[in-house]
């Protein structure tokens, strides 16, 4: 017990010494006062104590003087090492903060991005000129038109990919090369079949279309790393750190891979959603154009493009405008303006025109799309049809004067009335097939009957004046087998003209009823008359047919004074075909329709502008020698769409014939001034081919049998000649020729039958009907030069030299003349 108490007593602290306690209190008060009044506070006091300690130990224990230089270096070195360690710790902590804060780890910032603000490219100070923004300069009014379409450029992705493939030289070049080889091999393999090629091409396009935008968008996003907000960069670095740690730790590796896949899906979706639009035309053309324009305007190199040149994002937009600010040194001469205009038109798509402004503080040029040339207003057209039964047409007819003719409606739907007198007393028509020439002649005949006129119709075509047959006071000559009737009629007309002029000269009669002469198909008529004249001309007679000089030309010159008029339809105005007489000047008034360009130039000459060609029935052009050209639509009977062409024509002929008879009965007719009746037409004889038809197959023909049937002789059955014992065939039956396929039993053609001999005019018409473009005049020229042309020899007959059709067809086919594709026009006979 005593020992335990002694032990506790040994560890009991002694009571404090009052003196020491007083000193401690004084030291604490002095320290606090010094820390409060000295600059630096406690650090100054500690530094002073350390300095005093160094001074107090001026000598070491050995009594030698202390080396203050080494001591100071050691102290400073220790202090520096301490400070470096502290600084390194703080730098490491600050680098971590900057790394995850998204800041640059070294170097200066490459953009003005903020923590939540996306950055833009920083510019050097002083590069922006003092010029006002270009967009504040006034724009010109837009022009909404383009003269040429915007050029089709390849996709930006394709252009960038092609440039990258051409210029890439990195380690992946070999991999890319092998990949392209695989793709090409796949394409060639798929090309073996059309379906495989299409599938391969479709797959390649689909893969490229899906991958290229995503890769391009991600590449541009990574390329613009320095423009990201700091928060986004820090988040990306944090995610990369987490991914690296997750992949490094086996326990987190699976979860990290799943998270990476999800992040990849999100990135692809975001790339598709936020992929940027392709660069506009301002970014594509602006920098390149600015290099040249800056030199042309003599501007310093440091001038920014934005203050001098402004291009729209789409040059092909309707209201696109190019704005150029001009320096004060730009004088604005035409040469300077042309240089700028040529530069823009040679470097930019489209055509541009500029408007320059030199008033105000800033000069400028605004370029807009060149407006296309104004399309000419559509020329007015005559009406599509004019019905001869229309009450307005009938009203116009009732108001016509003695020498006035209503021809049709013009382009303003106004009636065109032409006088058939004075210089326009004779009319020439040149109307192609299907142009309504026959209907027009029949329409003129309506008005001629209203004027109580006598009509003479010479029509080798035999169809144009058909409705006039049988009308009183109308004399038609349409039999090409009787050319002597046509010649006699022309001679009768000129005799009437001479007689009337004689009476007018001696004033026994000054007024005459009109006499109208239709000359249809004058070219064919000339061939017929020439053939007839050549066969019957006497020795010493002129080579050319004088009927055109003595009758036609004389009537054209003298007939207008005595109310005799010729309406002629020509195919060609060849003087050589009309006996050397120039007929063109004798027809100052011409009517053309359904013409061709060569036909217009041949008839009208090159000085007359040719109106547009219109292949439409009744659409014609009236031309006078003084240059007046009028387009009209002639009247004709409307067609019923429910009837066929032939039925409509028959109905029109029936109505016209009844109309002609009504007009003749209403207005009357007088033979006064004709002196004698026109020549009577010869009896019509059936053509040779019809006359030679077998009566076995055509009992209803011209040589048909009697009512009681065919006799043995005409039927060709055996008939015993007188004194003979063997039934035979009569001589009359022996002269009949069978046409192949027409015999009752389909008997073949008799190979021993004699060929049919025809005149040149008949052969020309037959060849034209078969589709050959040939005329009788051309055949005669070849005949006259038979030594050089090899023209075949004919057969001499009592009516002159004749030929077979096959003989001349073979001759001209050997010379290269072939059938036309559409021979129906030749069969109908082209008018003029």
Low-pLDDT runs of 5+ residues are 1-11, 57-61, 122-132, 138-152, 694-752, 822-832
Biggest pleated-sheet summary: 8 strands, mixed
Q: In terms of quaternary structure, what is this?
A: single chain
DSSP strand content: 5-15%
Radius of gyration over C-alpha positions, nearest whole angstrom: 57 Å
The number of E-state strands comes to: 16
Distance N to C terminus: 166 Å
Secondary-structure content class: alpha/beta
What is the spatial order of strands in the main beta sheet?
9-8-10-11-7-12-13-14
Description:
The chain is α/β, with parallel strands linked by helices and 832 residues long. It is 44% helix and 9% strand. It has 26 helices and 16 strands. The strands form four sheets. The protein has an eight-stranded mixed beta sheet, sandwiched between helices. Helix 8 packs antiparallel against helix 9. The longest helix is centred in the first third of the chain and has 34 residues, at 68-101. The chain is elongated. The relative contact order is 0.06. Residues 1-11, 57-61, 122-132, 138-152, 694-752 and 822-832 have low confidence and may be disordered.
């Amino acid at each position: 017990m005593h020992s335990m108490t002694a032990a506790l007593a040994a560890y009991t602290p002694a009571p404090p010494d009052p003196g020491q306690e007083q000193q401690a209190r004084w030291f604490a008060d002095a320290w606090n006062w010094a820390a409060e009044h000295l600059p630096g506070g406690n650090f100054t006091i500690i530094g002073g104590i350390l300095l005093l300690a160094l001074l107090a130990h001026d000598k070491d224990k050995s009594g030698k003087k202390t080396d203050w230089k080494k001591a100071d270096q050691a102290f400073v070195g220790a202090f520096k090492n301490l400070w470096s360690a502290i600084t390194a710790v703080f730098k490491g902590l600050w680098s971590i903060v900057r790394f995850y804060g998204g800041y640059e780890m070294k170097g200066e910032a490459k953009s003005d991005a903020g923590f939540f603000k996306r950055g833009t490219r920083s510019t050097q100070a002083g590069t922006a000129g003092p010029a006002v923004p270009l967009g504040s300069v006034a724009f010109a009014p837009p022009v909404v038109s383009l003269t040429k379409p915007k050029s089709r450029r390849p996709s930006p992705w394709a252009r960038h990919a092609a440039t990258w493939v051409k210029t890439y030289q990195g380690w992946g070049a070999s991999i890319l090369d092998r990949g392209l080889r695989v793709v090409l091999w796949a394409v060639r393999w798929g090309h073996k079949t059309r379906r495989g090629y299409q599938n391969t091409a479709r797959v390649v396009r689909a893969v490229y279309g899906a991958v290229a935008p995503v890769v391009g968008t991600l590449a541009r996003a990574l390329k613009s790393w320095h423009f990201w907000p700091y928060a986004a960069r820090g988040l990306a670095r944090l995610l990369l750190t987490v991914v690296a740690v997750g992949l490094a730790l086996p326990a987190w590796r699976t979860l990290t891979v799943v998270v990476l896949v999800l992040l990849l899906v999100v990135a692809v979706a975001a790339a598709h959603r936020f992929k940027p639009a392709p660069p506009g035309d301002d970014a594509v053309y602006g920098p390149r154009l600015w290099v040249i324009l800056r030199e042309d305007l003599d501007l310093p190199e440091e001038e920014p493009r934005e203050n001098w040149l402004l291009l729209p994002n789409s040059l092909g937009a309707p209201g696109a405008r190019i704005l150029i600010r001009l320096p004060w040194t730009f004088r604005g001469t035409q040469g300077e303006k042309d240089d700028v205009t040529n530069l823009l038109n040679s470097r930019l798509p489209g055509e541009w025109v500029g408007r320059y402004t030199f008033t105000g503080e800033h000069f400028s040029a605004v370029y807009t799309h060149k407006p296309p040339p104004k399309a000419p207003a559509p020329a007015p057209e005559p009406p599509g049809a004019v019905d001869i039964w229309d009450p307005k047409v009938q009203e116009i007819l009732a108001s016509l004067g003695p020498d006035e003719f209503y021809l049709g409606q013009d382009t303003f739907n106004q009636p065109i009335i032409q006088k058939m007198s004075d210089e326009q007393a004779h009319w020439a028509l040149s109307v192609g097939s299907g142009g309504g020439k026959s209907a027009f002649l029949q329409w003129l005949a309506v008005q001629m009957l209203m004027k109580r006129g006598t009509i003479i119709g010479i029509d080798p075509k035999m169809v144009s004046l058909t409705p006039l047959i049988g009308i009183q006071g109308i004399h038609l000559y349409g039999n090409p087998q009787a050319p002597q009737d046509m010649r006699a009629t022309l001679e009768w007309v000129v005799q009437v003209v001479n007689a009337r002029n004689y009476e007018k000269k001696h004033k026994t009669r000054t007024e005459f009823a009109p006499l109208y002469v239709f000359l249809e198909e004058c070219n064919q008529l000339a061939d017929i008359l020439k053939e007839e004249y050549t066969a019957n001309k006497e020795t010493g007679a002129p080579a050319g047919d004088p009927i055109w000089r003595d009758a036609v030309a004389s009537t054209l010159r003298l007939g207008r004074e005595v109310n005799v008029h010729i309406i002629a339809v020509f195919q060609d105005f060849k003087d050589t075909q009309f006996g050397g007489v120039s007929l063109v000047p004798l027809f100052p008034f011409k009517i053309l329709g359904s013409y061709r360009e060569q036909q217009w130039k041949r008839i009208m000459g090159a000085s007359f502008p040719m109106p547009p060609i219109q292949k439409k029935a009744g659409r014609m052009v009236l031309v006078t020698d003084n240059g007046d050209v009028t387009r009209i639509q002639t009247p004709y009977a409307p067609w019923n769409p429910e009837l066929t062409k032939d039925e409509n024509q028959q109905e029109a002929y029936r109505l016209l014939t009844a109309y002609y008879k009504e007009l003749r009965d209403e207005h009357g007719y007088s033979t006064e001034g004709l002196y004698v009746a026109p020549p009577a037409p010869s009896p019509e004889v059936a053509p040779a081919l019809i006359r030679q038809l077998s009566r076995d197959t055509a009992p209803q023909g011209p040589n048909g049998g009697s009512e009681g049937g065919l006799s043995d002789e005409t039927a060709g059955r055996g008939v015993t000649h007188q004194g003979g014992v063997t039934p035979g065939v009569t001589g009359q039956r022996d002269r009949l020729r069978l046409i192949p396929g027409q015999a009752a039993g389909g008997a073949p053609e008799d190979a021993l039958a004699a060929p049919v001999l025809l005149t040149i005019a008949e052969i020309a018409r037959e060849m034209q009907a078969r589709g050959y473009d040939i005329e009788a005049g051309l055949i005669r020229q070849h005949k006259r030069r038979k030594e050089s042309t090899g023209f075949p020899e004919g057969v001499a007959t009592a009516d002159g030299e004749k030929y077979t059709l096959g003989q001349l067809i073979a001759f001209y086919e050997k010379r290269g003349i072939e059938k036309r594709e559409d021979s129906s026009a030749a069969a109908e006979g082209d008018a003029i």
